[in-house]
Design goal:
261 residues, alpha/beta, Rossmann fold, 9 helices, binds nicotinamide-adenine-dinucleotide
């Protein structure tokens, strides 16, 4: 029940999908959670639901691609809760296109969220953790993907961004360890998980109905199914808790065997 008791955790992209599952999980295990997103209605509803369940929650409108927005989010969190123990860089977007058809505008939009967002969050979390050192050490958790480990012919920009997140995570983990900062930095690599992102992606693909598309994607995973958001939230919880105190620069692959083939 109290695997992250008294920790303060910021989760970006917290209103739906993996972010929402992660904040629910962290709050149920004793953390104060800061829900950051641009989807205010869903975020505020989740904030209220978590508060009604007896945990501490704060929703903040926040755009991961904006440095000003990051500064405001961190200031607000420290003002309300005193410190930041955990940052989950979860917000992300996907776009599918053949390389010769992808526009520079779409490439830059995706990078501004998936890569700039992770960089800015990491930078400002480290600054905050240096100024207000968390008692049990800090943990930064970056959502990469199976698409940061293996390629997909239609997901070049997404592959590039998630591969970047994977290696940026290792670089920052090494920096923090060697600088004597008690901050662990790890990446999570989900297979396909049933969230709005995957539903929208499947909807946008030509051909069959949704049930057939879902079955096709499920079959790409050796376990024969698409993952549930909680499959990833359990990984977030582990990396946020001190159970993972010797884990840094690691890749936590949660993909039903997708990349084991
Ligand atoms: N669902 C999957 O199968 C899957 C697999 C591998 C990796 N991931 C990664 O996990 C993370 C979460 O994925 P999801 O499936 O829950 O996505 P989702 O699209 O269902 O939810 C993403 C959330 O991020 C928010 N967001 C988007 N742009 C933002 C911005 N500029 N600033 C702040 N918030 C913003 C959205 O409003 C939304 O609430 C993403 O980084 C994604 O790339 C997902």
């Amino acid at each position: 029940m109290n695997r992250v008791a008294d920790k303060v955790a910021i989760v970006t992209g917290a209103s739906v999908g993996l972010g929402a599952a992660s904040v629910r999980m962290l709050a149920s295990e004793g953390a104060a959670v800061v829900l950051a997103d641009i989807k205010d209605k869903e975020g505020q509803e989740l904030e209220r639901a978590i508060q009604l369940a007896g945990a501490k929650a704060l929703y903040v409108h926040h755009d991961v691609a904006s440095e000003e927005s990051w500064k405001a989010l961190i200031e607000r969190t420290v003002a309300q809760f005193g410190q930041i123990d955990v940052l989950v860089n979860n917000a992300g977007v996907a776009a599918s296109a053949a390389p010769e058809e992808q526009t520079l505008e779409q490439w830059r939009w995706l990078m501004s969220i998936n890569l700039d967002g992770v960089f800015l969050g990491t930078k400002h979390a480290i600054l905050a953790m240096k100024a207000h050192p968390p008692s049990g050490g800090g943990s930064i958790i970056n959502l990469s993907s199976i698409e940061g480990l293996v390629g997909d012919p239609q997901l070049g920009a997404y592959n590039a961004s998630k591969g970047g997140v994977r290696l940026y995570t290792k670089s920052v983990a090494l920096y923090c360890a060697k600088a004597g900062l008690d901050i662990r930095v790890n990446s999570i690599h989900p297979g396909y998980i049933w969230t709005p992102m995957v539903k929208n992606y499947l909807r946008s693909r030509d051909g069959q109905d949704m049930a057939a598309k879902r079955a096709e994607v499920a079959a790409m995973h050796p376990v024969g199914r698409i993952g549930d958001p909680d499959d990833i939230a359990f990984g977030v919880l582990y990396l946020a808790s001190s159970e993972s105190k010797f884990v840094t620069g690691a890749e936590l692959v949660i993909d039903g065997g997708y990349t084991a083939q």
